[in-house]
Amino acid sequence: MPTIRAASASLRLRSLDARYGLLGALLIAPTVLVFCTVIVYPLVSAIYLGLFSIYTPTMEGEWVGLDNYRRLLASGEFWRSLANNLIWTAGTLTLQIVFGILVALMLHRNLVFRALARSLVLFPYFLSTVVAVLVWRWLFNDLYGVLNHLLLWAGIVDLPVDWLGSMPNAMISLIFVGAWKYFPFVVIAVLARLQAIPDELYEAASIDGAGAWARFTDVTLPQLRDVLIVVVLLRTIWDFKEFDLIYLLTGGGPIIGTQTLPLMVYKEAFALNQMGGASATAVLMMLIMLLFMSLYLSRARD
Amino acid sequence: MSTPARIARRFLFNVLAWAVVLVIAFPLLWMLLTSVKPSSELFVIPPRLLPGEITFEHYRRLLTETPFLTYLRNSAWLAAGTTLVVISIATLGAHSLVRFSYPGRERLARLVLFTYLLPSVVLIIPLYLLMAGLGLANTLTSLIIAYTTFALPYALWLLRSFMKAIPDDLESAALVDGANRMQAFVDVILPQALPGIISTAMFTAILAWNEYFYALVLVNNDAARPLTTGVINMLVTSFNIEWSLLMAASVMMSLPLIVVFAFLQRYLTRGFSAGAIKG
Amino acid sequence: MSGIRFENVSKRFGGVTAVDDLSLEIGSGEFVSILGPSGCGKTTLLRMLAGLERPTGGTISIGDRVVNELAPAQRNIAMVFQTYALYPHMTVAGNIEYPLRKRRVAKDERVRRVREAAAVLELEALLDRKPRELSGGQQQRVALGRALVRDPAVFLLDEPLSNLDAKLRTHMRAELIRLHRRIGRTMVYVTHDQLEAMTMSQRIAVLRDGRLQQFAPPRDIYARPGNDFVAGFIGTPSMNFLDGRLKGTGSGRTFRSGDLSLPLGMLPLTDEMPEPDRRVRLGIRPEHIHFDRQGEPARVNLVEPTGHETILVFDYRGNELVARMDGDIAIEAGDTVKLAFRAEKMRLFAAADGRRLNDDSTA
Predict the structure, then answer these.
(1) Is there a single domain that holds both residue C176 and residue C238?
(2) Percent of chain B residues past pLDDT 70, beyond the cut
């Protein structure tokens, strides 16, 4: 106690800016504390654990150095999961962007009950992934699912489709459900940007003789460029680390047909009880993501 | 100029656009319809769009015959607890990041953004061990702690943008008028930031309400299970899957979101520009 | 009792110097304007005085107290911001009352003083409104009221009129002068508008790039500008400058620029010319140019009649020259006329540092 009082007494003598700085540090201190315990410590710990071979139930393990990484890079499963991860990310991201832009352009125009349309379109994004997956599993149901009936009735298929249990159907289904769940994010971003484009730009383009398509490519797209770059980076990061949707919809199956890296980490840690290997996988995955994260961080440097 | 051709084009666009909207919204519509159909109508081939009769039987069973209410209560506690903890810490933190200067401030702000992008699977193993070590395994507390890993960076980032929009002159005026920095914060900054704080709180509550992964790993008994893992548990443990029951649960889970969503509509774009709504 | 003193005050933001080794002494009860183009450091200077920024070097005193490390609340100052900075969630009364609440003034005393300030500024009818329901002029008065209510030793005003329309600005200028007379407090008024500075202040401090150029009463600033920057900055249209050399000595002294030669015999110089053939700038205000048969020929390039006067732009031996003449003058672009300058109004500046060279105590 005396030392604290002495410290505060000496602080009273220090400059106003120093006192302000101290107050600022005090206000951010809880944040820093929480960050250190629940983010920085686990992050460092994960990197450290990746150097051990640990059996989960007993938590006993030995130092294996970089063996986990060597084993991973030599394993087919890692590369398969990474490939799945990339296919899933690229596929669902492409659909999200394309649908997102189209629907945003649609909602930007004068539509009856536009506010309602907007809400209906955006809502899937706010839904729990659990709900989204339940609904889609019901739609995908092989016997009573609406989707199969629709396709049978329309004569597009002759037999019910096994949406989630076979390849490549499972991956395609995943990509579509992912697109349905996450494209509203693109809509929100693009819509906000569209509303900020001044009408004069379109009027000027019209006067210069630009048709509807030319107005889109020469005015709209360049204006959307910046926001789309940010959206693509963010969605790449988020889609890449997606766990819930894939785990709940296919569980990574059939076999490891749709297993991405986050699912592999989970399986190794909590099904195969290999905490060390799982940590190594997670760290590798983060290293891959760092590329996109640093790209985004450098862009977000407002 | 509204020539007949123009009117026809407009009409066509509206029909087309609404068709697209309805296709997008169909899964949700189907969820709602399934939840009020009698079980007997569920397995009619071909499926009927509108229910022959409307029943709330599934909702009744959900609330009385399943642990749904326990899950609901857990989820409510989780959302409220996470939001309270995160918003209190983040409001102070954001104020500090926006209006104070000290060494390392910019680096800290970037760290916030970085952690906001961090994958949960990297943190989960050490967190799992940490909770076990602290004796918090299978408790709501462990989940609240885990949820701060994504909710705190998110709330900080969002609040930072809201607070940046408050003019510096307001705080300066309060200081000149005789307030110290904390009084200026309470008297002037907080009231101005309130709408931003409320909307950030709601976004945070949604994140906690919808979270699945940490709940899956950290909680393994019904007493502390939230809705997300709880409802999935109902799916995996049941002998034959009762879709109407699950759809009723889905509707119930989504109801609070609809209320919050309606309130948040006008903050959506703001939430986006702040470094985006998390997903 | 509450003069203000800046002693060698500097302020650097990173690598940018906003205020550079500035010294200035403002008398108690004086109305002083800090005038300069945007980015000259005038707002920084005011914010340092208010305690919202800390100087990197030097000392600032209010009265006999060094205030460098005092929080704004401890300085007994009030400030009116360019943006008004009214608290949006408080009513007009709440805004005006806020400084009193922070100083723990008793409730009935607060009510009395708010009513008093409101009466002075004619805000009585608006006391229950929120700031966003007020017009710009009304918001401005509330901001003034918030400053006034506390009876501080020093008033700081940061471009308080710049967001008002022209008519209201003229009105508020008069109001502020009246207010200053009434309360007799020290007022420091930052502006980029020379008209405001010239009409309102007892003294003007002209700033450029964070450096003090001149600190003098308005009339002196205009008639005896300390250097060519002040000379060019004050007055519309600006003073004309001709670059040339000084030849000869004593009464035979002349200004030469190309083949132009002007006798300067009657201009007393502040210092003896150390080097011969010195490079100088000759300055002449537009109103000090007149037609003269013995003058130099000039071609009229542009005629801008404004009604009560006519602004003429000449080509004067390759230099552009702006003159202000009577409103009813009959002249057209393309005409050639002969021009002369009022000799005692010419100002001579050193080309090297812009310093004024002629002493015009006779003028």
Answers:
(1) no
(2) 94
